[in-house]
Amino acid sequence: MVTLYTLSVFSGASAATHYNCNGPLVSTLPHSSFQSSTQSSVSYAAYNAKLNRRDGAGGWSPMVTDQEPWLQVDLREQMEVTAVATQGRYDSWDWVSSYLLLYSDTGRAWKQYRHEDGVGRFVGNMNSEAVVQNKLSHPVRTRFLRFIPRDWNPSGWMGLRVEVYGCSYKSYVADFDGRSSLLYRFNQKSMSTVKDVISLRFKSHQAEGVLLHGEGQRGDYITLELHRGRLDLYLNLDDSRLRFSSGRVAVTVGSLLDDQHWHSVHIERFNKQVNLTVDSHAQHFQTKGEGHSLEVDYELSFGGIPLPGKPGTFLRKNFNGCMENLYYNGINIIDLAKRRKPQIHSVGNVTFSCSQPQLVGCTFLSSGSSFLSLPSAASATGGFSVRFQFRTWNPDGLLLSVQLSPEPQRLELQISNTRLYLTLHNSGRQKSEVSAGHKVNDGLWHSVSLDTRNLHITLTVDGETSSTIELWEQLESRGSFYVGGCPTMDCQHQTPAFQGCMRLISINRQPMNLSHIQQGLLGSYNELQFDTCNIRDRCLPNLCEHGGRCSQTWSSFSCDCSGTGYSGATCHNSIYESSCEAYKLIGSSSGFYSIDPDGSGPLGPTQVYCNMTDGSPLSWWLDREGERRSYWGGFLPGVQQCSCSLEENCVDMNYFCNCDADTDTWANDTGVLSYKDHLPVSQIVIGDTNRTGSQAVYHIGPLRCYGDKSIWNAASFYQESSYLYFPTLQAELASDISLYFKTSAPSGVFLENLGLKDFIRVELSSPSVVTFSFDVGNGPVVLSVKSHLPLNDRQWHYVRAERNVKEASLQVDQLPLRFLEAPADGHPRLRLSSQLFVGGTASQQRGFLGCIRTLTINGVSFDLEERAKMTPGVSSGCPGYCSGSSSLCHNRGRCIEKSNGYVCDCSQSAYGGTTCNQEVSVSFDMESSVTYTFQEPFSVMQNRSSQASSVSTESSSRAREDVAFSFVTSQRPALLLTVSTFSQQYIAVILAKNGSLQIWYHLQTDRSPDVFSPALNNLADGRLHRIRIHRVGKNLYVQIDQDIHTKYTLSSDAELILIRSLTLGKVTRRENFSDKVMQAASKGFIGCLSSVQFNHVAPLKAALTNRGSSLVTIRGPLVQSNCGALAESTSHTLQDQTVTANKDKEQHGNRTQKDLAVIAGVVTAVVFIAVCALAVVSRLLYQQRRAQRSSSIKEENRHSMYTDYRTELHLHNSVRDNMKEYYI
Predict the structure, then answer these.
(1) Distance CA 200, CA 180 (A)
(2) How far is it, in rounded angstroms, from Cα 862 to Cα 858?
(3) How far apart are CA 702 and CA 592, in angstroms?
């Protein structure tokens, strides 16, 4: 019987989902169900606003003086609403083209309906007769609906007829007063379940309270709790370790659930898998503990925990509010309680109708102009008192301002930096101030009480300990109380107006009636919305990617990407390169690097060792198929031989492997397995070792990855009607597109993807303009970047377009980055349906002619070559010298096609030579310095841009610096490099007194500089050291030689504003440096600096090749040197000697100690003599060259070394050159 009953009730409860809930609800309503803010006349009354009716004037129209018009419908009872429809006033020019929809249970406290994407505006009519229906993305259960017009026919007026679609539903309601609960008692001692389904709806005006609790003796428990306006679920299955610990972890869903409106909860558990859904937000997780069943003893409690001393309980407060349709595993708990069934025990006062009081509030909409002016009511005891509740996300805002008597005193209460500050302004500039509260911008309701009596002003927040200002005399209010802000003429402060919600406002213990205020019967106001708290949580769902932390204000959200390895407005972009090849092509040396192969994709970065040396690629892989292979390192697949057979140097030429010779001494077979289709190696089996004296030793080296095929994956389009197609882009919330192109055509579409209305497109719209356009439902948005030089010059150009819910951006080569902010309350999702077209469009018009390579979208590289093989009009690869992966130009050098060859443009490289691989080195003495002065303030040039669209506003570019150089010195302390700005910011790289490297970043002049010491050892050791510093926002990455890779976090992500100059060596002018930096600056630098690069500026090259330039200032002797190349050559020579020695040692390990000693002695002597001779020759050459070049460098030598370097010294003169020319 019980089982049948349970199934019967459960089936009835869900029956509403089994039939169509789309019947009309308005057409049969009486006149009394319609209300409006105003009406033009009786014939325009609200009750005439039924769809397709011609009663009266054919619909509702408000008075033309109505500043806040609305039409309200009472459905007479709670209904499930699934759609709404609108129509203009019959046979007129009056209609509403967009509107908001509010709903309420009581007609007093309202909530705005928002679609799943957060958009609250509905599309209305374009004429008076057509019906426009809007289906609700999630149905609402409500009694009252309010239509608020936002836009209407500009040639007419507002006219409205409406219909609401839905159905009735069965409602079982229980009211809990915070001291009551319902206990569902089991028929046996305990209930053990492997599957649970719990569903309910609730509403409350309190942010804390237990909705459900049950526990068992073995340690199981389940608790559903409202905490800080969110819903926490605690669930444990048979884990006694968590029973008595304080480390219980909740799964949290929802936000702002204390808004006095209904919220639905659904919990499904099967074994350890749990789905928790609140409204439209879901969490999927796996329970802790070893068990698969939930064992609860005696009972489940709903609405609270009735016994405060119950073992294992930890919750603070019972639920205060209403629950509806509460089901536990198909059992209707409220129905059983209402019929007084014995399974249910009622504790306290539980009633079966929802009579919760409605706390009506208002919303302050604008942080610039909202205010509420209220008259001062007389106080019987003298002084005055003010009480109210507020909630907001903003860290700053004025809450209250009042003039005091005696004059000219003024009292202000404001939120400042998330705390409350009460300030009494006396005559002159004297003031008294106290603070209270902490993080009051958390979106929760906070109560404020302000009293002046007994020569004290007392401020109390949330019932905590009061803060007090002592007075010399009793104060009285003078004039009006300004709440949330004040008119400009009466304000004497710089604090922004309050933006948020307020309720329960009282002055001198007299409540302020908000309805009277709205009707103009009490006080005055500006930019307020009554009867609703229109707060929303912009961090739910969290749109920050890759683990970014979301924070918000009233109108926007932001993402903290620190520690994630990603950057950008939504932490979408990886800060690391995609491969070792990409690091190699920007001039990085061998070492450990973090790479992110899928860029902005879901895979995180990983650290690898990148070997940047030239030579045959090595590749060690784990076994892919598990098949037996009998060839060995150094030989080709399928041949059972070793490398010594190929090289014809086996110890016994009768065998193809040294180990097959079966000698009495150790033999060695070594080689590299590089045929990746047969790799990886999962197991090595060495046989024939069971004989006496037979031994074997094997070693597998590390996996090393080289190259990046996707960087050079290209396709050539030679017919305008041709294109490549790929599956639809999955880019609803975020997308980044990057590619390289070269063409001689004046225009063409790089790629396009269409939806029903939405689209995204990147194209060359004219010979010098690249355009990124898209529409996500807010209207077309267009970003354009214009180059002062043509882009159809048959050279490679880089394009990167990004769009996310916060902003859109477009980058072309190194032209200034274009940013557009997205509208705060616009549609966030890009909905596409067609195929992705590359090199053309769906209409086969405006096709692209030329080459596209390295197409990457959201971290996924597109194989253009493979798709081009099967597409007419498109061919794989791209003709030309500069279209392959041969790295013809090094160290950021740019390969430029010529009719009969190519040249390397090294203007963006710190290196010289025909292929940009020659070190540029200069010797400094104590008085030497090189100062590079920027032509114009650098950050202004980077950010300079014009408005591209009225839809969005532009934001500034991100802070980023790249610094690289090499040095040799024995001096300490020493100044290596400084960058200073007109705004007193600076970067300094110095050697301290102990020779350790120090990096100083002074980005905010009101704070102490950030100082980092990545290497504590002495670098003033006469050896060559390579330094690379890379900053993105707050993240600072430092590489020293190949050994040290360190990440630091700066205290600020501020940009360098108005960069003035970069100095190498001694600083002569007085700067605002710290004492330690100034001490190093005064000492200058003695030694050699090589290949110095700051962003796109190479100051040493500029000094050597443009001594007469006004951009470069040289002080003291400056001598060209080859110290960088010499040190590098010496380093490589010693490394080669070490490798050779180690190899000899391995091959001849069976020789006697005596032989080794003799050989070692001979080698040591030879090396010593060679080094001495090299030192003598170097000294003589150095003296001769110094005598020849005491203060300058010969013109012909300069031209011979830098024939490819032009006088383009500044980014402004080479904007189309791209730092990322060979990578993404």
Answers:
(1) 17
(2) 11
(3) 14
Q: Where are the domains positioned within the chain?
A: 23-168, 173-239+248-347, 361-530, 549-608, 619-658, 714-876, 915-936+959-1120
Question: What is the pTM assigned to this prediction?
Answer: 0.69
Measured from the Cβ of residue 279, the count of other Cβ atoms closer than 10 Å reads 19
pLDDT digits (tens, 9 = 90+) for 352-361: 999 877 789 9
CA angle 268, 274, 280 (to 5 degrees): 65
CA 926 to chain centre: 47
Nearest to 253 by CA among 220, 280, 289: 280
- Each residue's pLDDT tens digit, 944-988: 333 333 333 333 346 788 899 999 999 999 999 999 998 889 999
Helix, strand and coil content of the chain, in percent to the nearest 5, comes to 15, 35, 50
Q: Is the pLDDT of residue 918 over 90?
A: no
Q: How far apart are alpha carbons 278 and 790 in whole angstroms?
A: 55
Residue 653 DSSP SS3: coil
250 contacts: CB under 8 Å, gap ≥ 6 = 225, 227, 232, 233, 234
CA–centroid distance for 632 within its chain: 48
Residues 6+ apart with CB under 8 A from 628: none
At 573-613, the pLDDT tens digits run 999 988 887 887 777 777 788 889 888 988 888 888 776 75
| Integer Cα distance of 991 and 980 in angstroms | 18
DSSP string, 1049-1092: E-S--PPPPSEEEEEEE---S-----HHHHHHHHH---EEEEEE
Query: What's the angle, vertex CA 770, arms to CA 1033 and CA 899, rounded to 5?
Result: 110
Q: Which two tokens stand for residue 483?
A: 């709440």
The answer to whether domain 173-239+248-347 and domain 361-530 are alike in fold is yes
Instruction: Say whether 711 sits in a helix, a strand or coil.
Output: helix
Letter for the amino acid at 830?
L
> 239: which strand partners?
none
Q: Is it true that the peptide bond before 408 is cis, omega within 30 degrees of 0?
A: yes
At 74-108, the pLDDT tens digits run: 999 999 999 999 999 999 999 999 999 999 999 98
CATH code for 173-239+248-347?
2.60.120.200
Please tell me the predicted confidence (pLDDT) of residue 205: 92
Terminal C-alpha separation, the chain: 68
**Contact between residue 1027 and residue 964 where contact means Cβ atoms under 8 Å apart:** yes
Write down the architecture of domain 361-530 according to CATH. Sandwich (2.60)
- pLDDT confidence bin for 885, thresholds 50/70/90: low
Q: Which of 254, 255, 300, 253 is nearest to 274 (CA)?
A: 253
- To the question of domain 714-876 being in CATH 3.30.360.10, the answer is no
Question: Residue 577: how many CB atoms within 10 A of its CB?
Answer: 25
Cis peptide preceding 406, ω within 30 of 0? yes
Topology (CATH) of 915-936+959-1120 = Jelly Rolls (2.60.120)
pLDDT of 1031 above 70: yes
- The helix/strand/coil state of 573 is strand
What class does CATH assign to 23-168?
mainly beta
pLDDT of 9 > 70? The answer is no
Q: CA distances (Å), 486 to each of 629, 1135, 1167, in order?
A: 83, 75, 85
C-alpha span between 265 and 283 (Å, rounded): 12
Distance of CA 1011 to the CA centre of its chain: 27
Look up residue 1026 and give its DSSP letter.
E
Per-residue confidence (pLDDT) for residue 609, from 0 to 100 = 76
Which amino acid is it at 825? D
List of E strands, 392-517: 397-405, 410-416, 419-425, 431-436, 446-453, 456-461, 467-470, 476-483, 500-507, 510-511
Residue 201 dihedral angles phi and psi, to the nearest 5°: -125, 145
Confirm if 359 and 504 have CB atoms less than 8 A apart.
Answer: yes
